[in-house]
Design a protein that fits this description.
This protein has helices spanning 23-35, 50-53, 68-79, 112-120, 140-158, 174-183, 217-220, 225-239, 241-253, and strands spanning 2-7, 10-11, 21-22, 39-40, 57-64, 84-88, 124-127, 164-166, 187-189, 207-208. By secondary structure, the chain is an alpha/beta fold. It has a single domain, classed as Glycoside hydrolase/deacetylase (TIM Barrel, Alpha-Beta Barrel). Strands 1, 4, 5, 6, 7 and 10 form a six-stranded parallel β-sheet that branches. Helix 1 runs parallel beside helix 3 and helix 5 packs across helix 6.
Length: 260
């Protein structure tokens, strides 16, 4: 069994953010996976049959490239013998996010030196676009800029080819996948779903991990598959509210009655 997990921000403790995972919970996940016999998935084994071939391996992925990946996740994964993949938003390196819904605070991102360090430790560095926009809503020119600019910027940082992509908000379509292929990306990860063989390497499914996921047993036991599917649909639906909120706030900000 290959278990691909999707995390975002790793917090010190509980925070008002359903997308976080407290460090204590992440360590429980690591401890349990080690106990259950899950080894580290070697990324060069990625192919269309990997879900059928791999026996008890886990790949930890972290979307957005928050600073907590280095401060919290990296030491914990290293402690238990695991590595990870981080998908960075290239236009926000060393900055704070601006796509969170109103009641969630902006979070700091990894900077260039952080990415270089993680890459030197065997982590995969991937792209999460340049400015974290809903790619399915962009005109062709802007779509290409979001994807190509990010790839080039991250390759300049780590000095190596960037082949992996994670869709912002988990949203993609055929047009987005075509631009990814034309830009040189070989792999792209979505936010949820179950693998269908042979696997489309531009639609690699993951198990999203949120604040309520104290245990990972629900993600590896087939008995809970329906529960996990419903939970993923609800969680991803909430994530899709972010680009809608941003669009509305931009409209309101430009309203003649608003002050600068």
């Amino acid at each position: 069994m290959l278990l691909i997990l999707q995390y975002h921000h790793i917090s010190k403790g509980l925070e008002l953010n359903p997308g976080i995972c407290p460090g204590t919970v992440l360590e429980k996940h690591l401890r349990d996976l080690k106990h259950w016999g899950f080894g580290n998935f070697e990324f060069d084994a990625l192919d269309s049959e990997m879900f059928a071939r791999v026996h008890k391996a886990v790949l930890f992925t972290f979307d957005d490239g928050y600073k907590s990946v280095l401060d919290k996740a990296f030491p914990l994964l290293s402690k238990y013998g695991y590595k990870g993949a981080v998908f960075a938003v290239s236009g926000f390196l060393g900055k704070y996010s601006n796509w969170e819904v109103p009641f969630l605070p902006p979070l700091p991102h990894l900077d260039k030196n952080d990415l270089r360090f993680l890459y030197s430790q065997g982590w995969i560095i991937g792209s999460h676009s340049h400015t974290h926009k809903d790619l399915t809503q962009l005109p062709e020119k802007e779509l290409r800029e979001e994807i190509i600019t990010s790839k080039q910027a991250l390759e300049d940082v780590i000095g190596a080819e960037v082949e992996c992509f994670s869709y912002p908000y988990g949203k993609y379509n055929g047009r987005v996948k075509l631009v990814l292929m034309e830009s040189g990306f070989r792999y792209a990860f979505k936010s949820s779903g179950f693998p269908k063989l042979p696997l489309n390497l531009l639609e690699i499914p993951r198990h999203s991990v949120y604040l309520i996921d104290i245990s990972l047993r629900y993600k590896i036991d087939a008995f809970y598959t329906r529960f996990e599917t419903i939970k993923a649909m609800i969680s991803n639906g909430m994530a899709w509210l972010s680009p809608i909120y941003i669009r509305i706030s931009q409209i309101l900000k430009g309203h003649p009655g608003d002050e600068d």
